[in-house]
Every structure is written in C-alpha cells, then in structure tokens.
Amino acid sequence: MLTNRQLQILQAIVDDFIMFAQPVGSRQISKKQEITFSPATIRNEMADLEELGFLEKTHTSSGRVPSEKGYRFYVDHLLNPQGINSRDIQQIQSIFNDRLVEVEHIIRKSANILSELTSYTSILLGPDVQRHRVKRFSIVPLSSDSAVAIIVTNNGHVENRMFSLPPNFTASDLEKMVNILNERLVGVSLEDIHKKLEAEVLTVLQQHVRSADDFIHALVTATMHNSESKIFYGGKTNMFNQPEFHDLNKVRMILDLMETTSQVQSLFHPNESGIQIRIGSENKQLEMENCSVITTTYSIGEDQQGAIAIIGPTRMDYKRVVALLDVMRMDLTQAFTKNRSD
Amino acid sequence: MLTNRQLQILQAIVDDFIMFAQPVGSRQISKKQEITFSPATIRNEMADLEELGFLEKTHTSSGRVPSEKGYRFYVDHLLNPQGINSRDIQQIQSIFNDRLVEVEHIIRKSANILSELTSYTSILLGPDVQRHRVKRFSIVPLSSDSAVAIIVTNNGHVENRMFSLPPNFTASDLEKMVNILNERLVGVSLEDIHKKLEAEVLTVLQQHVRSADDFIHALVTATMHNSESKIFYGGKTNMFNQPEFHDLNKVRMILDLMETTSQVQSLFHPNESGIQIRIGSENKQLEMENCSVITTTYSIGEDQQGAIAIIGPTRMDYKRVVALLDVMRMDLTQAFTKNRSD
DNA sequence: TATTAGCACTCCTCTTAGTTGAGTGCTAAC
DNA sequence: GTTAGCACTCAACTAAGAGGAGTGCTAATA
C-alpha cells in the first residue's frame, strides 16, 4: 500500500509529465506548491515508486516517467475528472444549437468538436444500422434490366442497393413482389433480412412471381454485406502535435489502422458500461502500444447505441478527456432520446 | 533550342533522379548505356542546362536536380508514357471482374488499386450527383411528426433526408403531395430541384394541401445543401514512403488538405480534356508546392463525368502514372457506358 | 573545333572528443 | 525521519577533423 506522501508524489509526477512531456526530476516536484518536502526526500520516494513499478527512468541519471502501471494506478485511484470549464461545455452544447434533425450531422459535428477540445483524435460510431427494423421496402426500376431496392428503417435510415432484374420481368411482377416483401419484412431487423428472405419469403414468392429465385438471390447478396455502423473521425492529424508521435512510422501505423474498418471497430467495447480506458499495451493492437484509448457509449433512442473513442498518447490528459466524454455522452444521449420515436 | 545531346542528358538526369531521389552527378550519367560521352562533356552540358533553368544544384559541389521547369520540359517533350506491364493491366482489369453493378464499388476499388500500382495517393471523384435527374420521389412517414424524403435518380443514386412534418398532416395529404411532386419533379436535375419547388410546385401544392408552406420549406432546405460528388481515396499514407515527405509538417499539411472537400475539389480541372499535370507551384495550393498532381476525367454513362487525381512528389514517376491513368480512364469509361441506361 | 583527362577546390556527411547541465544515489549531518 | 552535500552518470550540444562525391577550369588530345 502506498503512503499518502507517495500518492502525492506519484500524482504530481504524472500530472507534470502529462503537461510537459519531459522526464520529471525531484527538484521540479519540490517546487510545486502542494509539496512541502525536499528534493532528497522526493528522490527516496521516487526510488521506492520505481521499485514498485509505477515509475521508470529513460536512462540512469534521468528524471522519472510514469510506467503503464503508473498510469493505470493514476486513472484508477488518483483521477478526479475535471479540467473543463464553461467554455468547453458551451462549445459542446453548440452542437445542438441549430436544431438539426439528422443523427449523422450531430455525430459528425461531435467528432470535430471533441477532437478540437481534446487535441487528440476522436472516432464516433453512429447507430448500429443492423439493428434497425424495416419500415418500408420499395423497388424503383431504372431500366428494363436494373432497379434499386430501398429499405427505410424505423429510425429514418435509408439503405439502397442496385441490382439487375431477371429478363422479362414485368411491372406487375414487380408490384406483386414489393407487396409480398412489405407484408413479410416490415418489422424485421436488417441483420435478419436475408435469413427471413431465404427461409420464408422465397417460397411465397415462388408461387406468385416468375424468376423469383434469381431475384431473391440478387436481393440476398445485396442485403448481405450491409453497412455496419458508420464511422466518423475528428482531428485525424492531431497526433502530429504530440511529441511522442514525431516518429513517422508510428503515425503511419495509426493512420493506417484508422483506415481499416474492422480494426477501428475492435477499439470499442460496447458491452462495458461507463468510461473505459485502455493504456498502451492494454490495447490489443500492436500499433497502439504508445497510445491510450478512452471509450464510452451513448444511447440513440430507445434501443440504439453509439460509441465514442478518443485516441491519444499514453501521456494523455486523462482528467480532461474523461470529463469531456462524460459531458458528451450525456448530451448526445439526451439529444437523441428527446426527438426520436418509432 | 536544346541540342540532341542536351535532350538526352536532361532525360537521363530526370529519369535517374525520379528513380533514386539523389542529386545526379556526371559520372553516374556517363555510366548509362545510352550515354557515349565522358563525364567532363556531361559536366559542360549540365552547366548549360542549369543556366537555361532546367537543372538546379543543392549546393555548389553537388550533383544536379531537375527544376520545376526541367520537369515541365520533361513531361512536355521527353515523356513517352510506358513502364506498365501486363501484370499492371491485369490488376486494373480485376476491378471489373466480379460484375459489380454499383458505380460506387467500382470507383472505390479503382482508388485502391491505383494507389497500390503507383505507390502514391489517389483521389477519385464519383459522378456529379447534382446533374442526375429525378426518377422517383417518395416520402415515408416515420412517426406523426417526422418523415423521410427519398429521391431516386435516373442513375440509381438515392438521396434521402429526414424532416419534420407539420402538425395535423394526414396520410391523404401526404399522398396527394407525393403525387404532385412526382408529376412535377420527375426529370428535373437535383441541382434545379429547389428552384422548381419554390417557383412552380409551391403554388400548386398550396391549392391542394394544408400547411404546404412549412412542408415545402422543410423540403427545400433539405434538398439545398445536397451532396456534391462523392470523393474516394486510396493510399492516403503512401506519401510516407517518399523521402521528400520525411518531414512531418509537409505530410500533415497535405493530409489536412485532403480532409477539406473544397480543397480537394479544386485539385481537379474538369473542363480540360486528356491528362493534366500540375508540377509543384503550378498547383494553386501552397501546401502542394512539393507535389505534382496528375488528373484526368472519365465518363459515367452518357452525360456524367468522374475524375481521377494522383498526388505524389514532384519527383513523380510521370511516365508510369500517365500510362496507368490512361488505361484507367478508358476502362472506367467503358465499364460505365456499357451497363448504364436511362 | 569538339572532346576529354587531370587537378584543385567546395561542401556535405560522418566520426570523434570535449563541455555542459540536469538529474541521480549515497552518506553524513541535523 | 528528513535534508544538505557531493560524486557520479549520461544525454545533448559543440567543435574540429577526415573522407568522399561532385564541380569548374585548364590544358592536352583527336
């Protein structure tokens, strides 16, 4: 168990390093107002903290730097979220000023403002479209052999896909088909559509419409690889500002990671509640060994969920980011439950 | 006017520098197979070429480097597009293998393959949606006070926007309205919709539907800021490979530029035909002073146009890129005119 | 007259050595 | 238990020197 003095020193070191990105020496700490003991005493405590694994040295005669364990202890025990002021809050509120109706706009704006306020990179996940339910299904023919299938969901999302029509497909065929599909598909979630199509709808259609096989097949493949949650980025190049990313290779790896949808998705932990913090190697991705990722979720309407991630160096301003994310998730949740309905 | 020998030497120097990114010395040139004269002779010619502004030195005793004027001369007079082989062409063809119907997929894939083949960054502009014409207009109500407006265009593109319904708006109101809108809007291009709405449709609607004013207003604002051509990127971080971009600031500026839609749009020159090359400061953007941009256009169906840009260092492999773009534009044009129809 | 060999000169790049200063750990005094 | 004092370490900076790639000029050559 750490003594009070050790806690105080550890906190001072982490805070200082987060602020200045320089190894912290005993003298520097001793000059802080809240510290009442001499550099020599601090040096002794520092040596203990290093033995315990909370601090590291970059070389034998350098100041101390927090280890991952140090950061972990810091966020678990020494963090009282703060460091945001009314200006910050005002700026967040400004997202909702212009009475935008569209979820997408709000999220896009949120991503930008978050990256601006944190000076890190923000990633926001929109609603999980897969769980939307079909409100209406329609098909608009474009020519004799192609058409667009359109699905409107209960939340106002629109999916559309072009596909080729089987030859000799008449307008009345199409109408019958659309009617049947609407009867059967309304209320089904997008992720279940192709199951439903193949299991149930196919047999019904075969009785009423010629070339239903081909058609359904086209439709199934069209709805198969459906879009996952849309991803919005803010401040993609903000990391260039951080001294730990003055290395081109690191930056590149992270930027590349952010271009890969599956990798980005795996940054999130949608099943855990509250605010998650992954420090350095706690992240699964090798590319993120020098980064911390802070994530949280927000609600969109009754049953939808979005997520937020902030990516920065392990030397991240955890206090501020956690505080900001907390405000953000609440505001987003509120904004999206107020106006949405079925 | 340059002598034959000067042309030969200029070409050799530019080619060599494009390949190795190192200032080129007289000895290096003299060792090339096609060069039959001594280093001393080459030095004399180099001095002349420098006086004429085609070459530069990085310092008094360094080898020569092409100037912008040198590159310009090179692409104007010494460039015979080549340097692509059947493997490259095969890879380009592979874009069209899986009989994709959707324009978007093909373009996305093209962007990736182009960046892979060039090892530069590619930007592709999709069709200019503004010039699509309305095929069908429909409205799907979501709740008592909100609905989605959907426009399907002749090319199978789907635009949709949520908006609030005026209070006490009945289903029959909606139906009437949709009918009127379809009568009037089909065949109108997207960019003209709001003019048409305000000028013509408004008065008709006012006669038949209550609260038409509010409604049209909502619709107009919804269709106003329509999406421009969609932008697709390939190999955003490829520039990290180029030695001239080992400077974080340059990379950052270019990446930031690529996040700004208006800036990206201004890289293209849709009214010029063929393949355009902008070298260094020939680009309007200050950020691009060390870059060259090669652009071209391709056709999508009868009247639509897309565009391609490749961004690389001024020391770009012009030969290869021009050759690749030429194949690409032809293949895309062909693919999109074959299957499209009204 | 056009070309080329030879040579002095330039200047970048790399290495080495020396200096400075921030910081530590240890010991002894308070 | 705390702190002043001091020897020690090591990164960061600076200066000097060696090496080498390349040039421009001059004089010899075909």
Automatic annotation (TrEMBL), chains A, B:
GO process terms (BP): negative regulation of DNA-templated transcription
Positions in coiled-coil regions: none
Sequence ranges assigned to domain Heat-inducible transcription repressor HrcA C-terminal in this UniProt record: 104-322
InterPro entries tied to this protein: GAF-like_dom_sf, HrcA, HrcA_C, WH-like_DNA-bd_sf, WH_DNA-bd_sf, WHTH_transcript_rep_HrcA_IDD
GO molecular-function terms, A-Z: DNA binding
Pfam families named among the record's database cross-references: HrcA
Keywords: Repressor, Stress response, Transcription, Transcription regulation
Homology family: Belongs to the HrcA family.
Function: Negative regulator of class I heat shock genes (grpE-dnaK-dnaJ and groELS operons). Prevents heat-shock induction of these operons.
NCBIfam families: hrcA
Protein name: Heat-inducible transcription repressor HrcA
Name of the gene: hrcA
